[in-house]
Specification:
The structure is a single chain. The chain is of the alpha+beta class. The protein folds into 2 domains: 3-113, no CATH class; 114-150. It has 5 helices and 4 strands, in the order αβαββαβαα. It has a 4-stranded antiparallel beta sheet. Strand 2 and strand 3 form a beta hairpin. Helix 4 (102-113) crosses helix 5 (115-149). The longest helix is centred in the C-terminal third of the chain and has 35 residues, at 115-149. The chain is elongated, with a radius of gyration of 23 Å. The termini are far apart. The structure holds iron/sulfur cluster (SF4) (2 copies). Residues 13, 59, 61-62, 68, 70, 74-75, 78 line the site of one iron/sulfur cluster (SF4).
Length: 150
């Protein structure tokens, strides 16, 4: 283990991160708003424009001394990670954007989609759900009636 790793407290083993689709509609932004409403979840956009979700949750294989408990059998993703190119120790990852709260995400989405478009799409999406939900009991009633007629 390198000296830097020894002093770091194994930060790279305390979260996991994967790429998500770049949002381009109100509904897609709203899904991400929901992701970041959860504790210890953040989303960032890399300089190249790719979107990632990070979940701050330590690996169960990490032992109390901050070492990998299954080092010889560690997954490929851990084997491929190069401590020499570790971007966690730098602190500044140069993200294009980073969201830790629903408010931050919503502000960004308003900017990208345009304030009016955002509000219009939001109202339309909510209305659609409300209509669907209002229609549900009616459907059940119709089915019930049918079965009574038999
Ligand atoms: S690779 Fe980076 S984050 Fe992982 S233990 Fe080493 S210094 Fe820390
Ligand atoms: S398996 Fe080992 S190296 Fe990989 S994240 Fe877990 S503790 Fe770290």
């Amino acid at each position: 283990m390198s000296k830097t790793c020894q002093n770091c407290g194994a930060r790279c083993c305390r979260y996991f991160c994967f790429e998500i689709d770049k949002p381009d509609s109100f509904a897609e932004f709203d899904d991400i708003r929901w992701y970041v409403a959860h504790e210890d979840v953040s989303v960032h956009v890399e300089q190249g424009g790719d979107w990632y979700i990070s979940i701050m949750n330590p690996c169960k294989m990490l032992d109390r001394s901050g070492r990998c408990g299954i080092y010889e059998d560690r997954p490929l993703i851990c084997r491929k990670y190069d401590p020499e190119k570790c971007d966690l120790i730098g602190g500044d990852y140069g993200y294009k954007a980073e969201f830790h709260t629903p408010e931050q995400l919503e502000a960004y989405a308003r900017e990208v989609l345009g304030k009016k478009n955002y509000e219009r799409a939001k109202a339309a999406a909510r209305e659609k759900i409300a209509q669907k939900q209002a229609a549900k009991p009616a459907k059940k009633t119709r089915k019930k009636r049918k079965s009574t007629q038999r």
